[in-house]
Amino acid sequence: MISRRSLLLLPVMAAAARDDSGRKESVRGRLRQDDRLPPAIVTPEGRAIELEADGPTEAVLRDTRLAKEDFEVLGHFRTENVFVVDPIHERALFVWRGGRRLVVTYWCDVCSIRAWSPGRCQCCQEEMRLDLRDPALKEMDLK
Ligand SMILES: [Zn+2]
């Protein structure tokens, strides 16, 4: 629990300021959420790009509340059709709405706890709600 906490509190800017030598790539489209298949993004051209991700990231990719969204992931291509999503703590998951790119987060209204992957609140055990946020907001700001 302590290590999870400290991960959650990592400054957002650390990832943004890091020199990645221009290797950061992204894929945008609709999520493919089929239990029998690996997660994927289907691009507007109809191409399915398979996504490799850590456990918490995969839980977001399979969150059915995100099924209809215009979704973007950051990371890098392993092959032409396989994309490796950055780890959950690098905040690589976004939804586009009205020309704005919003970070995917989860929020417990009761405990005011934020998380980056769906599931129950670590405090009250209630299901956390999806909370798409302006990336400029600080992690613990209330909207
Ligand atoms: Zn809670």
What does this structure look like?
By secondary structure, the chain is mainly beta. The protein has one domain (2-11, 24-133). The chain is built from three helices and nine strands; from the N terminus they run ααβββαββββββ. It has helices at 2-8, 12-17, 55-61; strands at residues 25-32, 40-42, 48-52, 70-79, 82-85, 93-97, 100-108, 113-115, 129-133. A five-stranded mixed beta barrel has the order 1-2-3-5-4. Strand 2 (40-42) and strand 3 (48-52) form a beta hairpin. It is globular, with a radius of gyration of 15 Å. The two termini are 26 Å apart. Mean pLDDT is 87; it is low at 5-20. The structure holds zinc ion.
Main features:
143 residues; mainly beta; five-stranded mixed beta barrel; 36% strand; binds zinc ion
